Amino acid sequence: MEQLTIYVENKVGSLSKLLGHIAESNINVRSVSTERANMSEIRLIVDDPKRAQDILEKEGITSHIVDIVVVELRDQPGELANIARLLDSHGINIDYAYGIDNGVASKGLFAIKTSIDAAELRKILTDFVLY
Question: pTM, whole model, 2 decimals?
Answer without folding.
Answer: 0.84
